[in-house]
């Protein structure tokens, strides 16, 4: 009985003690005591920071999917930015290329004499120069009215003839091709001859079938002849220079000057009539 009363008394004492403490906190909280207010603030801060520290890993773990999505989005945006930058650089390069091509065309139009006959402007897309052949390919063909034999002109000079025609491209046989033979007239007397490509000669050209005692002079102009019925007469081929005559062999050497370089040519004119 005494034991039970002792336990009961202790239990009642605990309840009374806890109740007293609770009432004290309620009283202090409601009474707005300065020291307790400061203590309460410290306790609240500790609880708040402790709660943040405890919950931070959980929140970060829950946000991992969002981080993954965000990283994937950033990666995609960076790829799109890279694509846009590449496209920008390509547009800049294309713009520069078009500007250069436009300048070349304008320069060509200014340099090129417009003949009364109908001509067509063509772009050189391929050049070839070997021991046995010298040619270029242009971007015009039968679909544009070109035919085999049409003369090709650059800076008012004949540079060759159409040798092969496709629908939208053609191959031009240049004057220095070994198979090139052009009927021409030379000098003030309009002497008939054949202007041929000759890779073995120093000048890469040869004037054949001149009269026996005919001598070339410096400055003689060479023009096309229409004797074959294909070429238009009067197209400038070149000008004779550096003429030398050997009395012992009765042979003359010479050079031919042109107003163009066929291997630095971007655009040409083609007679289609």
List its salient traits:
six-stranded antiparallel barrel; 273 residues; alpha+beta; 2 helices; six-stranded antiparallel beta sheet; Thrombin, subunit H
Helices and strands, with pairings:
Layout: H1 2-31, H2 34-111, E1 119-129, E2 134-138, E3 151-154, E4 157-165, E5 170-174, E6 181-186, E7 191-197, E8 205-208, E9 221-224, E10 236-246, E11 251-257, E12 267-271
Antiparallel strand pairs: 1-2, 1-12, 2-5, 3-4, 3-12, 4-5, 6-7, 6-9, 7-8, 9-10, 10-11
Explain how this protein is built.
This protein has 273 residues and is α+β, with helices and mostly antiparallel strands. It has a domain at 119-271: Beta Barrel (Thrombin, subunit H), CATH 2.40.10.340. The chain contains two helices and twelve strands, in the order ααββββββββββββ. β3 and β4 (157-165) form a beta hairpin. The protein starts with a helix and ends with a strand. The mean pLDDT is 77.
N-to-C CA distance: 140 Å
Structure classification: alpha+beta
Mean pLDDT: 77
Shape: rod-shaped
CATH level 1 class label of one domain:
Mainly Beta
What percent of residues are in strands? 25-35%
Q: Tell me the CATH topology of one domain.
A: Thrombin, subunit H
